[in-house]
Amino acid sequence: MKTQDLTMVPRSDQDASLPFPSLDGNTLQAYNKLVSTLYRCLHDNTGFQSFFDAFQQHFKALQGGILGVTSNPQRMVYGWTFGYPEGFEEWYINSDLPEKDEALTRYARLPPRQFDSFLGGDSSRTILDILGPESRAWAEAVGMGDSAGMLVTRENGTNVVFMANRHQDFGPYTDDELLQMNLLAPHIENAVALHLKLYQSNSDNENLAMALNHVNKPLVVFNALGSIAQANDAARNLLTHTGNLFIGEDQRLHSSDKRLSRKLHDAISTCIVHSHKGHLDTRTLFIHNGPERLAICLTPLVAESVENNGVLAELFSFDIEPVPDLERIQTLFQCTPAEAAVAAALIQGLGAGAIAEEKQISIHTARQHIKNLLAKNGYRKQTELVAMLVRALG
């Protein structure tokens, strides 16, 4: 059979109305346990992990999760996952794979609340013949045998998709299993909708946002979905002045440059994912805007419930032409003139390689100056040092 013959399409309403096999007593009891576990997830701060654990065991799932994905381009902006290696979410957010992920594309096109699988129970097929090169490489690496999923909801340009991959050792998902998933589907939709309501009404970030206008420097608070909960007047004035950044109708921060928009959204999403794991390092983005350079320091916000974490963005505007005050840098950061010159370059958004080229020094020397700046000022990471340089001199 040719590869194109293996490509699946969503089942029609007529197909969905065909009789399914019935559930036996034990299976129905297991299904009821899954439903109760799902709704219990709304009463604690562990997200959907307990439901994922039960789902993974019951359906012999390898990995998956609930992912919020923008439509055009297809990018992951938030999510809860299970079964993936450490650091997967950050890598996935910052990669091109979501745009080429056949599973995400397939499930996003389904009618809401309708599970479907790639193989439809046919053990004579292999999912590797269906997937494109990028997804096939991942599937081969983890031993994927089948994938099932559903569109949970579609709202404000974001598709929320539930997906569950399965190892090849367990064969394709059966009709019985897809029946159980379809019985679960409306409950998954309800639970996710309620969880998103809890995100959007998070009092921690709202209270912080209300206090922003008491601070003169430009500040923006992003909620757990990466949307803007509040931007103070100073931030809105700066955004208007730059003309390059703006708040869109979807309440996200955008740029007229699509690549920059993507960079912003990926950095914010990465911050939120890091906050779930207790990594609270500040990330700094540098944006060129004519004669100015804009620096955005992103710091994770930790709420009482980890699932309500957000991000605080501090905005700083620099003139490109004036040379930073090296004497002031030496005084503030206890460093030599050579180290101050490297610090000034870090404020301009340069890395060690670019600094070495600009200063006509070896990259080893540039890295050594950065290490000295870290050690003298008690910072563990270069991102922390850059954020403090920007805050001190912005």
TrEMBL record:
Q: Which SMART domains match?
A: HTH_LUXR
Q: Where is the HTH luxR-type domain?
A: 332-389
Show the Gene3D superfamilies listed in the entry: Winged helix-like DNA-binding domain superfamily/Winged helix DNA-binding domain (1.10.10.10)
Q: Which GO terms describe its biological process?
A: regulation of DNA-templated transcription
GO MF term list: DNA binding
InterPro entries from the UniProt entry: Sig_transdc_resp-reg_C-effctor (IPR016032), Tscrpt_reg_LuxR_C (IPR000792), WH-like_DNA-bd_sf (IPR036388)
Give the transmembrane ranges. none
- The name this protein carries in UniProt is Helix-turn-helix transcriptional regulator
Q: Which organism is it from?
A: Alloalcanivorax xenomutans
